[in-house]
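3.2 Worked example (two chains)
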Amino acid sequence: MKKIEAIIKPFKLDDVREALSEIGIAGMTVSEVKGFGRQKGHTELYRGAEYMVDFLPKVKLEIVVADHQVEQCIDTIIETAQTGKIGDGKIFVTNVERVIRIRTGEENEDAV
C-alpha cells in the first residue's frame, strides 16, 4: 500500500475529489494548510499598508491506496489539479506498512 499526499490549490479540491471518486477512491483526509515553494509569497494591501504574505493557502489530500491504484490516482490528481501556473502543488508517495480499522480490527487493504 502507498500513501499519496497531494498539496493543491484550494479551488481545485471539489474537482479532484469528484475525479478520484469516479475512479473508485472512496476515502481521503483533507487539511487546510499554508506553505510556499517556488511561488514564494506575494504582497497585499491592508488599511493602506503593504505587507508580505509568505505562506499561501493550500489544501493537502492524504489518500492510502493499494499498490495497483497508485499510478491511476496520481494521474487523476495531476489532470484535475493542474492549471499550468506556478503553485499548482506537489504529490508525495510513501510506503504504508500497516493499516488498522479501529471499529472492526480489519487490517491493511481490507481496512482501506
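3.2.1 Second chain
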Amino acid sequence: MSEEDDKPVDDQALADEWAAALEEQGPEDEIDPDAIMSAELENFEQPAAPSFESAPGSPNMDVILDIPVTLSMEVGSTAITIRNLLQLNQGSVIELDRLAGEPLDVLVNGTLIAHGEVVVVNEKFGIRLTDVISPQERIKKLA
C-alpha cells in the first residue's frame, strides 16, 4: 500500500477541494442535460420493425409458419346445470346438440376453420375434412 492509502480521509478537506473545483468551472464547462438529450434524439435511429413481406405485395409466411396452435374437434355441445354435472359418473350419457352422422367442427385456437367426419387410421381416430371455411369467411365471422 502507498502512504496515501494509509492516511485517513479528511472529509472537510475533500469537500473544500470539490468546492474549489466547482468555483473554477466556468459557464463553458457547464453541462446542459436538455442539449445532450436533444443531440441524442437527433442521432437516434428507430430499429426497423420486422417485415412480414418478402417482396412488395407478397407476405413472408415463414415468419409465422412455426407458431404452434391448438387444433381440436368438437362432436357437439350442451348446457347442463351444476347439479347435473355433479351427478355424472361412469356410464352417464350426455345428450349433445348434434345429430348422429352430422359433421364435426374443426377448431384452431377456438375458431371454426372446417367441418369433417371421424375416420379410423391405424387403430387411431382421425378426421377427414369435408368442408374448409375460407379465410374471408372466417374474417367475416369475427366482425
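3.3 Remarks
The chain has five helices and six strands.
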